[in-house]
Amino acid sequence: MNTDVRMEQRPVQVAYRKAGFLAVLGKNLAGAFRFLKNDPFSMTGAVIYLFFILIALFAPLLAPYDPHEMIKHNGKLAFNQPPSAEHWLGTTNMGRDIFSQLVYGAKPAMMVGLTAAFFVVVVGTLVGLFAGYYKGRVDGVLMRVTDIAFGIPFEPFVIVLVAFLGPSVWNIVLAMGLLLWRDTARVIRSQVLTVRERSFVEAAKISGASDLRILFVQVAPNILPLSFLYGSLAMGWAILTEAAVSFLGFGDPAMMSWGFMLNDAYASQALSREAYWWIIPPGIFIMLTVMAGFYIGRGSEEILYPRLKNQ
Amino acid sequence: MAENPIIEVRGLSKHFEARQHLFRKSSTGAGVLKAVDDVSFRIPKGHSLGIAGESGCGKTTTAKMLLKLYEPTSGSFLFNGKDITHLRAKEELKQFRKQAQLMFQNPFEALNPRFTIFRSLLEPLIVHDIGTKEERAAFIKQALEQVNLIPAENFFEKYPHQMSGGQLQRVVLARALIVDPIFLVADEPVSMLDVSVRAGVLNLMKTLTERLQLTTVYISHDLSLISYMCEQTAIMYLGKVVEIGDTMSVLQKPKHPYTQALLAAVPSPDPDEEPEEVLIKNHVPSPINMPNGCHFQDRCPYTEAICREKTPELRQAETGQIVACHMVTPFFDRKAEREEHVI
User: Fold this and answer.
1) Which chain B residue lies closest to A20 (C-alpha atoms)?
2) Could you tell me which residue ranges the ABC transmembrane type-1 domain spans (chain A) (predicted)?
3) Of B104, B124, B134, the CB nearest to A207
4) What is the DSSP letter of B188?
5) Chain A contact probe: residue of B123, B139, B141, B161 with most A CBs at under 10 A
């Protein structure tokens, strides 16, 4: 009955305007939101991401100090201070405010995470769609390229690329864009192989739709949830990689990231000084973002395989 | 049949190369599966042809060739008087796609699960660039009303999983008819539906195809469906048409032993009626590398030497239909004769 009432309020033209690829995407997003409301795991993940995105956007407002500033009190460098009302998480050995660093560190994490996830979703989905739909030679070529991408070890590749191109967050993103799409492409391809055999694809062919139209209008919406799943996993992966690369000292020194903080702490023997306020917060933030990716992934698994819910 | 038939196929064949092992060459060489072999028929405008036969006899392959989803291996296909066997040009193919439509067997698979009904029906209109925004919405409303989904607006925003099989099959029919086709293929249109809604869908198809003067092909293994829906019937066995003609003659005075066996297998609703004796033996042989002669030779109760040597040609029986059997002319009622023998 509910739907009937809704229908009367929605004139035909509105329904028409909603058609098209954007509408399908919009519907997917709307569906994703409805899904989040019902799934505590993905809700948690989404809230964590949202939290960090907000922190990244409003970092200058939230941070009490410039993260690079060497703070002096009464003309004396305030170094290695434990947490206090003035410095919530204490200061580094160079007198920098750790809380401010932590807040500013959200920005590279989110930048790297979101752009890497974007590339993973776009490249992986496109490769998977074309390989699965056209099969034959197209599939052969694309899957051999994927095999090569699988053959390259990820972290050494990132380090080598950054060593060649210079330490910049964007080079880390580039490295991820070049490699991380491989899992998405494989999985999307296998999903497309089953979707393309269903009769609604044949129906679209009979109605005269071109291959590209069938691919993007009929097949793509059916695999998008899977792409989003891999995107959210890739986001966690990317943040972890950025942290690892920065910790190893290949990060962008101008950009305050959590990995860079850890590297700084490690290099200045924060561990032996038991400066837990310096080591633990960035560690927890890295863990939270990676966890958020996996929580969303875990939730989407249940969309794809509803049976998991009952177990 | 003076006017041009809508559908005319001559010697239509579709052969598939049976796949070989990668490392082990088969000793007989590549096998050839003759899914459809030398099939000819014509359907005049507004008429309907039923194609019946057991699984694997080539019914669906024939349907797919009629819709140009498969390219025939040989033979020719005339659509509305025009040879379109090897039609490749994009625009002309699109024109054909607008005129020939398919009704699917499984309505639960035939609609995109992520599209609303409105979106599914809009798709063909976008593809063929029919109408303006407002006109399209009106067309969709009309198409749904035509298939008795009333009020149509209630179905616009529904997703396939929110509807029943019977309703979905009506939507599938509406989608086929929305582009105003002249030819409709129905591949087992009701076999996936509950028995209680079958008659409704069939009656709807019957009225609509008559009103719209559609030329139709029904693919089914259900002879009662075909006798209800079709003026003409073709019986296929292992890729060949073994008997074709007016439905009345084919189903009431069957000449080919296979047709007779098919009809004998139709169960009777009367529990006291003694089931008819099944005359044929064995199972359907593998369609790969068929021997010479009649495809039915190993199962037929009347096989003679000639059946193993020569492929029977289609010949007209005195009851009107065309039959591919060496034993048919001169016609004699074999069943009667056989009973005499038994006695």
Assistant:
1) B119
2) 106-297
3) B124
4) S
5) B123
**pLDDT over threshold 70, residue B229:** yes
Is the residue at A99 inside a domain?
A: yes
Which value does ipTM take for this structure?
Answer: 0.82
Contact state of B137 with A209 under an 8 Å Cβ cutoff: no
The pLDDT, as a whole number, for residue A10 is: 42
Q: Determine, for residues B122 and A19 on separate chains, whether the beta-carbon distance falls below 8 Å.
A: yes
- B316 in any annotated domain: yes
- CATH number for the domain including A48? 1.10.3720.10
Structure tokens at B53: 């036969």
Give the pair of three-digit tokens for residue A76: 């004396």
User: How many domains does the structure of chain A reveal?
Assistant: 1
Cite the DSSP H helix spans in chain A.
2-9, 12-17, 21-38, 40-57, 59-62, 98-134, 136-151, 154-165, 169-179, 181-195, 199-206, 211-213, 220-247, 258-267, 276-304
Is the Cβ pair A10, B157 closer than 8 Å? yes
Could you give the CA distance from residue A139 to residue A124 in angstroms, rounded to a whole number? 13
In a domain, B340, yes or no: yes
A255: region left, alpha or beta (phi > 0 left; psi from -120 to 50 alpha): beta
Amino acid at A49: Y
Within a domain: residue A78? Answer: yes
Sheet containing B74-79: order of strands = B32-43, B7-17, B74-79, B82-83
Domain membership of residue B310 as a residue range: 289-343
Please state, in angstroms and rounded to a whole number, the distance separating the CA atoms of residues A225 and A238. Answer: 20
Q: Which structure tokens are listed for B294?
A: 């009649």
DSSP state for residue A76 in the 8-state scheme: E
B102: in domain: no
State pTM to two decimals: 0.79
Of the candidates A12, A200, A207, which has its C-beta nearest B111's C-beta?
Answer: A200
For residue A311, pLDDT beyond 50: no
**pLDDT per residue over A178-209, tens digit each?**
888 998 999 999 999 999 999 999 999 998 89
The answer to whether residue B277 is domain-embedded is no
Q: Are strands B322-324 and B240-246 parallel, antiparallel or unpaired?
A: antiparallel
Nearest to A234 by CA among A123, A145, A133: A123
Q: Is residue A15 part of a domain?
A: no
B15 strand-pairing partners: B34
- Minimal Cα distance from B91: which residue of A? A208
What domain range is A42 assigned to?
A: 28-310
Residue A113: which of A50, A36, A155, A63 has the closest Cα? A50
Q: Give the total number of structural domains in chain B.
A: 1
3 state SS of A250: coil
> Over 70: is that where the pLDDT of A304 sits?
no
On whether residue A22 sits in a domain, the answer given is: no
Strand partners, B322: B244, B316
For residue range B135-174, list pLDDT tens digits in order.
Answer: 999 999 999 999 999 898 999 988 888 899 999 999 999 9
A113, A172 in Cβ contact below 8 A? no
